[in-house]
Each structure stands twice: as C-alpha cells, then as structure tokens.
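Interim report, section 4.2 (structural modelling).
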Amino acid sequence: MRYVEEYRGAEEAHRFVQALHARVTRPWTLMEICGGQTHAIVRFGIDQLLPPGLTLLHGPGCPVCVTSVETLDKALAIASRPGVVFCSFGDMLRVPGSERDLLSVKAAGADVRIVYSPMDALALAERLPGREVVFFAVGFETTAPASAMAVHEARRRGLRNFSLLAAHVLVPPAMEAILADRNRRVDGFLAAGHVCTIMGMEAYGPLARAYRVPIVVTGFEPLDLLQGIHMCVAQLEDGRAAVENQYARAVRPPGNAPAQAMLQAVFEVVHRTWRGIGPIPSSGLGLRAAYADWDAERKFGVSAVGGREDAECRSGSVLRGLLKPPECPAFGTRCTPETPLGATMVSSEGACAAYYRYRRFTGP
Amino acid sequence: MRYVEEYRGAEEAHRFVQALHARVTRPWTLMEICGGQTHAIVRFGIDQLLPPGLTLLHGPGCPVCVTSVETLDKALAIASRPGVVFCSFGDMLRVPGSERDLLSVKAAGADVRIVYSPMDALALAERLPGREVVFFAVGFETTAPASAMAVHEARRRGLRNFSLLAAHVLVPPAMEAILADRNRRVDGFLAAGHVCTIMGMEAYGPLARAYRVPIVVTGFEPLDLLQGIHMCVAQLEDGRAAVENQYARAVRPPGNAPAQAMLQAVFEVVHRTWRGIGPIPSSGLGLRAAYADWDAERKFGVSAVGGREDAECRSGSVLRGLLKPPECPAFGTRCTPETPLGATMVSSEGACAAYYRYRRFTGP
Amino acid sequence: MCLGIPGEVLSTVEGPLRMGRVAFGQVIKEVCLAYVPEAQPGDFVVVHAGFAISRVDPEGALRVFAYLEELGETAEKLGGQSP
Amino acid sequence: MCLGIPGEVLSTVEGPLRMGRVAFGQVIKEVCLAYVPEAQPGDFVVVHAGFAISRVDPEGALRVFAYLEELGETAEKLGGQSP
Amino acid sequence: MSTLLNRSCPAPLKHSTIQLAHGGGGRLMRQLIEEVFLEPPPALAWTERHDSAVVPLGTERLALTTDSYVVTPRFFPGGDIGKLAVYGTVNDLVMSGARPLYLSAGFILEEGLAMEELRRVVASMREAARECGVRLVTGDTKVVDRGKADGLFINTSGAGHVPEGRSVHPRRVRPGDAVLVSGDVGQHGIAVLSVREGLAFETPVQSDCSPLTPLVEALFSAGVDVHALRDTTRGGLASALNELALDGGVSVLLEETSVPVNEAVSGACELLGLDPLYVACEGRMVAFVPEPQAEVALAALRGHPLGVAAARIGRVTEGPAGRVSLRTRLGGHRLLDLLSGEQLPRIC
Amino acid sequence: MSTLLNRSCPAPLKHSTIQLAHGGGGRLMRQLIEEVFLEPPPALAWTERHDSAVVPLGTERLALTTDSYVVTPRFFPGGDIGKLAVYGTVNDLVMSGARPLYLSAGFILEEGLAMEELRRVVASMREAARECGVRLVTGDTKVVDRGKADGLFINTSGAGHVPEGRSVHPRRVRPGDAVLVSGDVGQHGIAVLSVREGLAFETPVQSDCSPLTPLVEALFSAGVDVHALRDTTRGGLASALNELALDGGVSVLLEETSVPVNEAVSGACELLGLDPLYVACEGRMVAFVPEPQAEVALAALRGHPLGVAAARIGRVTEGPAGRVSLRTRLGGHRLLDLLSGEQLPRIC
Ligand code: SF4
Ligand code: SF4
Ligand SMILES: [Mg+2]
Ligand SMILES: [Mg+2]
Ligand SMILES: [Mg+2]
Ligand SMILES: [Mg+2]
Ligand SMILES: [Mg+2]
Ligand SMILES: [Mg+2]
Ligand SMILES: [Mg+2]
Ligand SMILES: [Mg+2]
Ligand SMILES: [Mg+2]
Ligand SMILES: [Mg+2]
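Predicted structure of the assembly:
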C-alpha cells in the first residue's frame, strides 16, 4: 500500500536507529501521546531498538482508557433501555464501568452494535425508525468531526431517533496536566499526528514554551516514529524546546478548516473528567444547545451518579507517565485483559494491555 | 380417570351395538354436531361397529373448519403487526386464509403463541405491558364464556393492551341451515353435549318440531355416543322427533345460568359467514359496544377484504352432510393435511382430516 | 371442538374471580370456577379451555348404565316373547 | 486511537454530503469527503472512522527520506571530521 | 393407497420457508429429508434410513449417528437436556445393534447463558456418559449473539462398534414378526409439557429418559434374532412404527389394549387432547422379533428394571408399506398416520 | 511468566454468564473448556487436546471430531457455511493424521428460513463432500421457533481412519522443529468481514476454504515424520500456534517477514486495525516437522496447487510452554498472545 509500505523499510529504520545511538548522550524519557503510536511501537518492536536510557512512555491518547467511569455508567444505563440500539466503536465494549461493561449488558439482552463510523449509526437510525439509535461518541479531535457530521446530518435529515452520547476529549489540556505534575518524568512529546491533521499545531507553541518541552508532531509508521524520536532527542540534546512537524505529508500547521468549522458549529468546549487522571478544565467537547434534541444524556435523562474506579488500579499514574505498567502491583495477576481492573488493560492500545500482550515474557 | 374410563367399557359397548343391530330396520343417517364427538368416533372406531345402513356424518361443530376466510385474513393481518402478540388455540394455526396461515406468518416473524385458555392470553397481557396481546376468540357456545370472562376481566383490571378478535359461532342456526337444505341427508342429530352444558336444550325443541327431526344431546365417550345413537335411532324407528338428553351427568335443560349471563353482558348476536357454508343470519357472537375498546377489529382497523375460498374445495357440502370426504375429487391427492385446500382437512376434528388420518386405507 | 374433561375439585379460592385446583386423575391444573359457583371440593366438574362449565351430577352419571339395563331387559322380554 | 490510513480517491459524489470511493490497496470503501473538498480522484487522503481527514501531500511524503539523507550526510561529515 | 406414501412420487414441497413442522418428526420432516437432503443426483446424505449408519472402518463395523438437542425447558421432571443429549445418541447407536463407545459434544451457547446452568448441564452429561459407559472424546463450543439462539443447543454424535454377527435393520422386518415395546409410553413428552410456559400443570410424571443399552444387550444375550429396533422419540410410538413400517415395506397392526400407558400420562393426554401414542419418550424402544422368539424376548426385556413394563403390542402384517393401524379397545380400527407436524394440544 | 499461562492454576472464571468471547477461540474459551468441560472430578469430556480424538475401534484406530458452524453471513466470497461445515471437519480429521471417511450432519433450522437457501447449502455440502471423498452417512434436523436461532446452524462430526504408523500430536513437538504454514493467511476472515452488515467493503479477497487432505497426504507420501499439525481457523495463525505451543509444552518463534499475507488481506487489515496473524483461515494449516525434513516438507506442500504459497515461518524453541513470539521486520520482538476474545475491528 502506497504511503504505508515505504515507511516500514528495515534498512531505513536501522539507519534511524544508528543515528539515534549516535545522537543520544544522556537518558531521555519521551511520551508518545496517541494510542495508535503505542500500537505501532509494540507491533514493530521499536522500543527494543532504542539506545539504552531512551525510554518511551505511553500517553493518554486512547479514548478507551480515559473515558470516565461516570460516562461509561451513563452509556450502560442508556444501552440497557428497551428499544435502544446502542452503537459504539469495538474497543469500548470491554471497558468496565462501576460494575459492568457494554459486552455484559449486551449479553443481558441490550442491543449493542459495533460500528466502523458514526455514519453507520446514522444509517441504522434511518433503517430502524421505530428504535432509538444512540452513538457513543468517544475519541479525540480526530474523531470528533465524524461525530459532529453525524449529528449535523441527523438534524438536516430530520432524524429524531438518533442521538449522541458525547464524550469527546481534547489533547492539549491533557498534555498540560501531565506537564504540570511535579513528579513528571516526560522530557519530550511525540504529539498525535492525526489529531493535528484536524487541529493543526498552534495549540502546542504555548505549551512548548511554558514548560520548555520539545513537541514533535509525529506519524504512525515505524520511520515516522523513529524520525519523530530523533527530532525530539535532537532538540533535547541541543537544549531546544520547539514545536516541529514530522508528519508533514498529512499535517498542515493550521489544520483542517472545514472540520474545525463543523466542530465549532456542533460542539462547545466543556470540562471533562478523565479516567485515572481526574477532572481537567476545558478538556472536552459537548453538544451545543442547538443540538440538544440529539443529546442522548438529555433525551434519556441519565444523571451523573459518580462512578467508582477500582481503588487498586494505578492507571492514572500510568497515563501520566509516572508509572510503567509492570510496576503496578495488580499487573498480570489480579489485572489481566480478561479481568481488567482499569481501562488501560482493555484497549489494545492501552498501556497496560500493550505490555501484557506484547512484552509479558522477557526475551524472544 | 373417574367419569371417563367407565364410559369406555368394551363389554357395555358391545351390548349397545347388539341392541342397535336389533333395533335398526332401515338405513338412517345421523349427524354428530361436534368435532369432539367426531374425534371420539374415529378414535374408538365406533362407526365401524354400527349396523350396515346406519351412517354417521360429521357436522359443522369444529370452529377450525367453519371460521371464515375473511376472519382468518383479519387474524393474519393483525398478527403481522409489529408489537402484537397473537394468541390462539393450537389448531387454528394451520388453517389457510386467502393466501397464508398463522404458522407461516409466525415463520415470517410474527409473534404467534398457542394458549390453552383465553385467560392465558390475559395473563400474557399483564406480563407484557409494552405489547398488544390479541386473543383469537373462535369456538361455539362452550368456549364463548371463557372469552367473555377474559374481556370482562381485562376491563375490570384496566388492561388496555388486551383485545379479542371475536369469531364465535352458534350451533342452532347452523343446524337449521342444514335442515333447511332441500338435499339434506340427515335424519337425526346428536347434539353437542358441551354446548348444551352452557346453553341448555331449549333452542332445539322448535327445530325438532319444525323439521320433524330427532335431536339427542350427547356426550363424548363411546358409551355416550352409542347411547345417543341408540336413542336417535329408536326415535326414528318409532317415528318420533323429540329432544332428548343422553348427557344428563353434565347437561341440565336450562343450561349454565352464570355463563349465560356473562355471554349476555359481553356479547351480542351478530350475523356470521361460515366457511364453506356461507352467511347464516344471527349465527355468531360479537362484542357489545361497552367492550369496543377491547375489540381487536376496531383497535387495529382491519377491514373486511372478502377472502377467497379455494374453488375446488367441497367442504361446504361436507359440513352440511351432503358429501363424504372421499367423494371430494381433491381428497388425498391435491388436498392432504400437509397441503389442505379446505379447513376440514386441517383440524384433527375436521371431517376430511379425520377420514384421511384414520380411514385412508381400507381394512386394518 | 369443546374438549371437556371431568376433574375433581381439590380446593377453591374465592374472590372476584373464583378459581380452584382440579385433579384429572394424577394431573392437577388451576381452573376458573366462576361458572360453577355451586361446585365444592369433592365435586367433579367438566373443564373446557380453563373453565369449569358444569358440575357433574353423580346420579345423571348412572343413566347410561340404567339405559343399558333397560335395553337388556327389553331384549330379554322380546327374547322371552318369541317362542 | 485515531487509526488513519491513506487511500486513493477513485471517484467522488458531490452533493449535500460529499462522498467518494477510496482504495486502500486492493480494498475499496465508501468514505465521506466533506472535510477534504480539495481532494480529487487520484489524490490520496488519510481516512479515519469513515471520514477523510487530510489530503496526503506527495512532497511532504518525501521529507522522512530527506531527513534520513541529511542524517547520513551529517554522519559522513562527522565521520569525515573525525580522523 | 395414497400417493403421498409412495416414495417414488413425493408431492412437491409446498412451503417456501422452513416451518416448525419440518422438525416435528412427522410427514413434513420426512418430505424435507427426502427432497432436500436425499434428492438427486447422487444423494448427498445419509444413505441408511436408520437411527445410525453402519459403515466399515478397516476390518471393523462402525456405527455413527448424530442428533441435536434443543428441548425447552432445559430442565424438566426426571431429566435435562444434558442427559437427553447423551442417552438419545447412545440409544440411536444401540438401535443399530452397536455397542456405544464414544461421543462428541458440540455446544452452541447463546451469549448471556448462565454459567451455572452450563455447569449443571455438563455435570449431567458427565454422569449420563458414565452410566452408559461411553466416553466424550471430542467437543466444540460456539457462542452466538444474544437473541440468535435459545440459551443452549447441544449436538452429540456417537460412534459405536457393531459386533460380528449382528444385523439389525428395518429391511429385516418380516410379516408375522412380533412387535414389542420396552415400557409404557409418553412419559417424557408429558413431563416436558408439564413445565412448559403457559401450559404448566402438576403431575407426578417424570421423563422416562434412560439408556437402552442394557435392554438390547439382554435381547442379544437371550439369543433373540432381533430384526429391527427403534427408539420412540419425537412423534412417539406411532411415529417410530410408521418409520419402521415405511422403511421395512410392511404394515403393522397394534392392539390398543396392549400398549402400556401409565395413568398420569393418560390423564394429561385427555386434558390436553393429545394421543399418547404420539407423545415422545426418551427411554423406550420398539423391537421387531421373529414371532417364535417373542416370549423369550419379552422375558429378556422384563428381566431388567428398565423393561419391567415391556409388552407385546402387535404384529407385522402383509399390506401396503407404511400402514400402521390399531385395533381399538372396542374392536374398531383406525390408522396411526404420520403426523403433519408436531402434535399440538387440542385445547379447543 | 504469568500464572495465567500456568495450566495448573487457572484464574477463576470471572463471568457468571456466557460472553461472546467464550467462543472466540482465545483465552476465555480455553478457560471455559478447562473449567467447565474438563474440570474435576474425572473429566467428562474430550481427553485429547487435539483437533480430533484418536481412539481404538476393535483393532483399528478411529479419529473422531465435531464442530458446529454458525458463520454470518452464510454466503461469502469464495464459500458458504455448507462448504465450511464439510471442509472444517474434514480438516480436523486430517490434522490428526487420519484419512477422513464419514461425516454426520446435524441441522438446526430457524422457522422461516428460506427453503431455497437450505437447498443451496445442502448442494454445497454435497459438492464439498464429493471433493473430499467423504460420505455424509447420518443426519438430523431440528427446527426451532422463529427468533430462537439465526437461520441455520450446522454441526458436522467426522470419522476417519488413522493408518498404521502415523502419529501426529502436539506432544511430539520438539525444540528445533521447523514450523511451516501451507499458504497465505487471513483470506477467509477478510472475505467474511467484507460482506458483514455495517462493515462492507469491496475486495477481491475470497475465502481460502479448502480441504487439507491432499497437503497432508503429500507430506506423508514424501516420507516426512510430521510431528504436529493444526488448521488455522478461529483466531488465525497466532491462535493455532498458541494452542500447539501450550499443548506441546514449548515456545515458538516466528519471523514476521516469512509469514505469507497477500496484499489485499494486509490492506483490509490496515484499514480495520486488525492483525492478519489473528484473522481466520479455513484452508490453511501449520505443520511442525523435524528440522532436517523441512525442505522436503516444503517442497511436498508446494507441489500441490493448495500449497504453492507454503512457507517456513519459524521454529520451535526451548522456553515457557505456550510462548509464541515474533521477530518483527525491524528486528524487534513481540509476543503473539492468545486473544481474550474475538479480534474486534480497531476502527477508532
Ligand atoms: S495493570 Fe491493571 S490495575 Fe494496574 S494500572 Fe494497569 S489497568 Fe490499572
Ligand atoms: S378433501 Fe380438501 S378440498 Fe375436498 S372438501 Fe375436504 S378440505 Fe375441501
Ligand atoms: Mg432414534
Ligand atoms: Mg441420530
Ligand atoms: Mg435420535
Ligand atoms: Mg471446534
Ligand atoms: Mg433467545
Ligand atoms: Mg482445527
Ligand atoms: Mg473439531
Ligand atoms: Mg475445527
Ligand atoms: Mg435425529
Ligand atoms: Mg434470528
């Protein structure tokens, strides 16, 4: 596949690796923001090629990991209503709420369906006029335009049996929360390339300056990641803290204007609680009043009942780069992908699950 | 079982048979009205024990056989509505309407359930408040009080998701239609014992007198039937035409007063079309206006679309005692219980089905 | 049609809708007794579609056999007459 | 999160909601093109959750290799410097 | 004789979709099998009209059979779906004269099934297999979405060894053969009905489900030259006899008064308007044996606790293939036809 | 090493009801089998962790296996449920070194299924059986109420004959064995996904479903001392290797670049976020053979049209039982773990 295979060459990768070995003089800790990046790193074993002392931490860029228990409990309550068709991306189905997950309400009789796109949920609403179709809108700035378009189209087409449980979150406030932590271990960021295709790079300048941290907008293929790491390390070694764009083939500094306009029209910035991390001001997107009729929370009157996270789970520390998964006492014993205590053990991009699935044995 | 086994004794039966042989001097044709009697006759092989020339014809007393195609089409239309739970006695499920039967709408997704009693349908309505439960109220005077009670209770309990598709029919008008036919072959009737437990015997006096035909109210066990036949034959041989009661253990001449009162309260006499036979004035029971809210025809607005009966089917002649099933050209070839052309091939009490299932081979 | 089976009333529950347990040999079913207000435990009733439609009259129940007796006597009488 | 895959626009359907067929190697899917009004058949777009979120810039696509070249030259230079 | 019973000229299938009756063990099901599964050219499917196929494996004779179990409710007086799944398949092996040895178990589970219920069913299968002396040697589990199954379906397939010299097959049936039944009929069907939603009644009737291995071994041990066997499952005694009469090309005449039916079963049948001869059993069989050996065979059956109520119920006669008739207690006759579908309660 | 992989100490089943994942071919399913079907006392169920059980029948060795087929949609590019039901069970027999001979077929039909669809499926089974040289010798049909099944489920059980001298079993796997795959992986899973409701995409990918009999016979004909075989069905190549590694008590190391994946499959996997190593095949197998015979074995496979893309993909190593790892194209390593449930499209 074009624009994929070219970025996976072993020879080029090794030249990057050599260059990294040559460039690094001190230990550095980088965090890749996006779960998709985490996935590529473990899939290709990139972390194992890095110079000793150069550490990658998995960031909070996995919506499955950061969606709050409270929001999940709302989702479970709505999905359990008779007549509701609850549509979600696949990975959300295994995330535990206070007591259950979507798979278990499905097993108990709820009509929960996996969709590839919010537009699939919309199409379902058109096909099933007698049912209430709800889309569980999780995800970052990359996904929010898709949700926005679905709601917008629902209004345009007069589909009143469609609604959105809006749980979108924003990356920059989370990065700031990580940076502001006094125990922070992160020296530099690989920013999430696809988020930046939508939002551009402007938000990162102030962060880089305020916290004096290099931020490199990075893609998802091995060469992208290796280049992003190299660019970040180069800045650190040189004592710079700038925003740079590794992922130039997809990211333009101002981002995607039509998508931003749609986000603006449909959503407004709201406070959100992040699982493990806690409340972060202005870190989410909620539906504007004009779309109140398509707001599932309003339609179904689910009230916030203050969901409980598992007390033993250290995923907040994992997500902020303060703890590596195997350092959590529950890891691999009481907490496994079959019996996850935290969301980071659920998603295949979750830091704990990635460690468990790909790195559990030492050595080949 | 008490009051059952006593009436099945082979020894007593043979004494009755001997008495019949002794008593009969000429050919007589009797009709048993009720399908239950037909069933017992073929089950025990009673017809085979009778003197030659003494013929039994199967009457119209099988609601499965006489419910009109039009009514069936309404039932099929209602059962096919989304949200409806359509409850029926078992045998109605195989009766063909114009194009389909209840089993095939069930197979196509309708929620059709077999109940033992109309009260089971009522209980279902209580258990499924979100659904519309409809009971297909077929049957003669014996069954109508059960339907009446169900509607009455629905009103008393305020169950508005229950309704009745009323298709009850009355025996005496059908007997009169048979008697009035100028080709009639019937010399005497075994009246339907269970109908008479409800209605008593009063309606039959005028018929017996007007058409000079003996009418013996008869039970359902072999000795009952043999006695009823004997009583009827005795009248014929003696040139009498009276109403007599063979089934004294269950039938009192005035009938069942509380049941009659309930019928009176809930139903009114209406015209009805009988399958095969055609319209018979004042031959059915329909819901009174006070129960209009529980009337399925009204609730679902199904209009009479004039159902078509199969042109080849001679069941009208069979039901009126003008034709024996094997005399129908379609019998056993184009018309079988698997591919019935008429309702009389469907019910196990239907005359054609009874012949097919029990008498198809000659000899043991 | 009109399958009606005699069963013995085991117990009754009075109320807006009179109900009762009825035994058919070794099989017991709940049945509506509203139409047989006179039926008491120990009585037999004819049951159709979940409703008792008639109380069985023990005397009436013997009539079949009485009729048969009479037939026999008549036959004997006739037999006696013949020679 | 944010699985985004580059595919080639095969055709577009203009209308209130711009749609198009996009090929990912030998796999073809219908995709919403509303957010890439500039994308034409022959262009590559990055697709996420059924939406094209960005047109691939063929020039930008070469930068990785250019960077690698530079690194190599730097290394050679450095290598050249050392002796 | 009706053309419908003439196998060379089956009526065309009227239904364009599957009806419940296609699984009822009656005529529609036979039609489905003949026209969809067996029809031309070169039959796809089971070439032997028998409970089991008997086929060579190297120098040995292997009996194979399969059945799926979909009974609702899954637990009923005297048994459960797990027991049925073991006994039913073991019995089909035994009906071909085989010694049952191995079973497979294929589970189709509906998402949301209680784990505890599955455990109970599996425990019941374990116990039943132990009792029958068979080993469950291979298995499979599939889980389907909620609403795409009915809790739990089990398929068991069985493999057995047919000892030298045994030949049990409908084609060996001869006019004059005595027809025996191994016990009273209809208990299983009534036990299941008694706990079915919307029909529930109280009854002491328990399912008769049990393995038939000891009874068949008793017949062979007694030196009986068993011609044919059939367990009386779906469709009951009458359907089993119809099948055998069709496959053996003979007529069968039963004596109504000889057929053992226990009192509670006959009471339930009166109430529901059912014919006990068509009510399912899960631990009864009919045996066709040479008339001269009938008494020996009966004694052999009665010698085992499962066969105490065994009876001689009729005989094979010359006559059209597939005609099963009954001499009633009053001396009349009636046909025992194949049903069109499942027997429905004649409540009305 | 995690205790989860230690079979003597399985984690307690967390779920009180059956989840879809219990049928996904991954860890939950293994747990279900171990704790419900195999658990104490004296195992009820299949004692051999193998595609088929191999058991004695008189003086012969009989292979038995069973599988239920519940795939949706039932017709997909390159195949249908009927073909799968024949090939799948034939292949499980073949994986134990047996020559497949007989199949049973158990149908569970949902009321309302189109008769025409059933005919098509049966025709497809007939054709597939002919192709495989097996006979469908016994069958069963059950019909359940509308809404109590999903159109059509098929169980097939298979019986085969294991020729003298063959011994194919996970326990024969040895460190150093070469690991071969018979062709490119993942076509079946992608073909099915491409026509699944709500996910549909256009692709030239066709299901790889096919019988493995000729490939296995080719190995034996070439004189290869095959240690173990497994067809790569549910859960794909990675799951098959995990199973074998666990059952054989060894580790396996794969070379990513050696695993054949065709371009359309890898494109679809990129799009949906799937790992092709976990995508189902229905006509591929892995073979564990002694290292010195690896090239002979590979040549034997490649000599048949179904094996042209056969490849040597890795080797058995000393190490913890059940560890399967992969050397990535960049030289890193990652585990190929058993999945928790089914692989879901990572769309987000
Ligand atoms: S291993 Fe489990 S308990 Fe520990 S941080 Fe990760 S998800 Fe939470
Ligand atoms: S045999 Fe069939 S066609 Fe003829 S009268 Fe009877 S039901 Fe009608
Ligand atoms: Mg059988
Ligand atoms: Mg069988
Ligand atoms: Mg069977
Ligand atoms: Mg399997
Ligand atoms: Mg269900
Ligand atoms: Mg296998
Ligand atoms: Mg198998
Ligand atoms: Mg298999
Ligand atoms: Mg069967
Ligand atoms: Mg369904």
